[in-house]
Structures are given as structure tokens and as C-alpha cells.
Amino acid sequence: MKMLAYTKLDSPVHRLTGATKLLFFALWSAAAMMTFDTRFLIGFAVFGLIMLRISRVRLREYSFLLYVIGVFFLLNHVAIYLFSPQEGVGIYGTKHVLLELPGRYNVTLEQLFYQLNIALKYGAVIPVAFLFVLTTDPGEFAASMNRLKISYKVSYAVSIALRYIPDIQRDFQNISFSAQARGIDISAKEKLGKRLRNVIGILMPLILSSIERIETISAAMELRGFGRHKRRTWYKDRPFVAGDYLTIAFMAVVLAALVWMTIARGSRFYNVFV
Predict the structure, then answer these.
(1) pLDDT tens-place string over residues 101-150
(2) Is the keyword Ion transport assigned to this protein (predicted)?
């Protein structure tokens, strides 16, 4: 099973150029991180889910990473409450206690609303991040980064990393199957401590094989004179079409509206308690 690997499909998202998707993702992420306006964040999250559906990307292609992000999401919220349980009270200037707890750990409506906005930020950025990775050809991605004035050496390095994600997954599966054939169990039937040791035993050959692949690729690129010239051409570079211009214009309008509302209100926070 491939995860976070590009699959060529015919959808409106796939037809956009890599440069458009890269620019959109950068501006979208900046907007989502900048604001705490709940209305915008809900709109961002809903829009991201709709576009994920339109792209026809299958859940199994990013389900594992979604699970990992979910774990960090929960840890982040627990940490916020443990270290700053009255952050929402300080931001919104009011205090509505829902549950009395010892010390400063009273559960307040303001804190819940603040952490809701944090959750919406995850919901706003993650679907668009998956869209960008899963609908952009690695070769075109490198060309897109270079078009946005990023060094072609950096662009090509990122492209190679994305291109070899499926190969690393295949190597992991092959090493895992070989280990299981020798009686090394990494399933839920084994105790957690031993399972972790078995997984580490699988990861070491994977790391060594990846290093060997890196050396092979580096030698091949060096023999072909990679990096000798300041500029290069790209086989998969595509010109902008109407859909690209409309997408960039849409993002520019959304960002402008967000900045205008933030300046007009004098705060990044949307306060429902006043």
C-alpha cells in the first residue's frame, strides 16, 4: 500500500500546475496560522475537505499519517491545557467557568473556545497539505519551486525525496515480510516493548539501504555534472492556464479580506463573548 505517493488522476486539482499549488499552499497556510477568526477557520476547513473530495484522493493513501497527526494533535491540546489552562480567559477578557477544579485548572468556556480554534487550524491546513503532496508530480514540483526563484538544487533535492517515498515504503514492507518469515512479530499480538525492539530491528536495514541509495544517486548526479550551471530547464514544467490564474486570484482575495478584517477589528481573535 502506497502512502503519500503521487497518483496521476484527472481532477481539477491535478490539472493545476505545481507552481500554483505550491503558492496556494504557502499563502493558505500563512492565512490559517495568522488568524484566530473562527468563521474563517471553519470556512478553510470545509473548503479543504471539499477539495480533498474533488481530487478523488483515497483515504488509505494518507490514513496512517492522519493517525500520527491525530496523536500529536491530542498531545498538543493536553499540553496547552496543562501549561496554560487560562489562556483563553486572558485572550477574550471574560471568564465563564464550566467546571471547578483545584488551582488554576478550572475549565472555562473561553479556554474551550480558544482550543477549538487551534483544532480548526489543524483542520484548515492538513487537507490542503495532503492535496499538495498527493496531487503534484515530483518532477513538476521541482520545476514549480524553481519557478518561484528557489534554487534548482534545493528543488531537485525535495523532488527526489518525494519521488522515493514509495520506494522506501516498498523496502520497509519487503524487510518486514522477511523478518516475519524468520519469526519476528511486529503485530499487536506481541508485547509493546518487544514490538518496538522488533520494529527498530527492521528500521536499521531500511536506513542502511536508504543510505546506499543516496550514495548511488549522488554519484550518478555528479557524473552527469549536476550543479555545474546556474540555471537548468525542466521537462515537466507547464505554463499557467485559466484555472491557475483563477486559483491564485481566489487566494489573493481571501487573504486580502482576512487582513482587512484583522486590521479593522484590531485583533487576530474573533471574540464571541462580547
Answers:
(1) 887 888 889 889 999 999 999 999 998 888 888 888 777 777 777 777 77
(2) no
Angle of CA points 88, 74, 28, to nearest 5°:
75
pTM: 0.73
Question: Residue type for 124, please?
Answer: A
User: Would residue 86 count as lying in a domain?
Assistant: yes
The SS3 call for residue 59 is helix
Q: What is the number of structural domains in the chain?
A: 2
Residues 147 and 230 in one domain: yes
Does 167 lie in the same domain as 120?
no
Cβ–Cβ < 8 Å for 184, 201: yes
Q: Tell me if 5 is assigned to some domain.
A: no
- Answer positive or negative: Cα dihedral of 265, 267, 269, 272: negative
State whether 63 and 109 are in the same domain: yes
pLDDT at 207 over 70: yes
Which DSSP string do the residues of 207-255 spell out, in sequence order? HHHHHHHHHHHHHHHHHTTTTSSS----TT-----HHHHHHHHHHHHHH
Dump pLDDT digits (tens) for 143-175.
Answer: 777 777 777 777 777 777 777 777 777 777 777
Cβ(18)–Cβ(249) below 8 Å = no
Cell of 188: 499487536
> Residue 65's domain spans which residues?
17-136
Of residues 127, 107, 150, 142, the one with CA closest to residue 17: 142
Verify that 82 and 155 share a domain, yes or no: no
Compute the distance between CA of residue 109 and CA of residue 116 in angstroms, rounded to an integer: 10
Domain boundary among 101, 136, 171: 136
The string of DSSP codes covering 123-142 is HHHHHHHHHHHHSS-HHHHH
